[in-house]
Specification:
two-stranded antiparallel sheet, disordered N terminus, alpha+beta, Extracellular Endonuclease, Chain A, Endonuclease, metal ion binding, DNA/RNA_non-sp_Endonuclease_sf, 8 strands, 18% strand, 204 residues, His-Me_finger_sf, hydrolase activity, globular
């Protein structure tokens, strides 16, 4: 894996800025984010890819959710770096990563431009079916699977992800809670009111 970021302006839209009306009606477009208080948060991080073409392919608005900067460039970015380094260091074959977002469970759902729903939380889980048998003791809980949930709203309650009151002011309220895969599945099942199994086979 490589960990440099590709050009964040690559969004797979025409250079002349003319976007087909069918596209505008079916997905987010760059102007939706203009003058909003949200950054473009990757679900599939560009930094987790070897090939420049693969990295560039992550810069599409179908791979992006509205994310507060303190999460996107702070706490969630640290999680992405941890996961990338962990899989690069100890995974011996393919690794599988699933990342998603959770809407608000109650109250008014925030939107950008009345078009793009803002998630209350982001979540991610990975599975590495084949990994180094001589894992250091500190790394053993993280294999073959592990997961996390991150806050995207500092005003959200502490039920899913508690707030670290000692965190720096710039990232306080955007905490990320690391957890076993089963704990994340429980969170998703409760929020979505349906059974959730993220991986199968060796990744269960």
């Amino acid at each position: 894996m490589a960990f440099s970021r590709a050009n964040p302006e690559i969004l797979c839209f025409p250079e002349d800025g003319k976007i087909d009306q069918n596209v505008i009606e079916s997905q987010a477009v760059p102007r939706d984010y203009t003058n909003s208080t949200y950054t473009r948060g990757h679900l599939n991080p560009s930094s987790h890819h070897h090939d420049m073409g693969d990295r560039n392919a992550t810069f599409t608005l179908t791979n992006i959710v509205p994310q507060k900067a303190a999460s996107n460039a702070g706490t969630w970015a640290r999680l992405e770096k941890e996961v990338g380094a962990r899989l690069q260091g100890f995974c011996l074959g393919p690794a599988y990563v699933i990342t998603g977002a959770l809407p608000y469970a109650s109250g008014p759902q925030p939107w950008i431009n009345n078009r793009v729903a803002v998630p209350e939380y982001l979540w991610s889980a990975y599975c590495c079916p084949a990994y180094n048998a001589s894992l250091p003791k500190w790394a053993r809980p993280f294999f073959p699977t592990y997961a996390a949930v991150g806050r995207n709203d500092p005003q959200s309650g502490p039920e899913i992800v508690p707030v670290n009151s000692k965190a720096k002011a710039m990232v306080r309220g955007y905490d990320v809670k690391r957890m076993p895969l089963a704990d994340l599945e429980d969170v998703l099942e409760q929020r979505l009111a349906m059974p959730v199994t993220l991986f199968q086979g060796q990744c269960v």
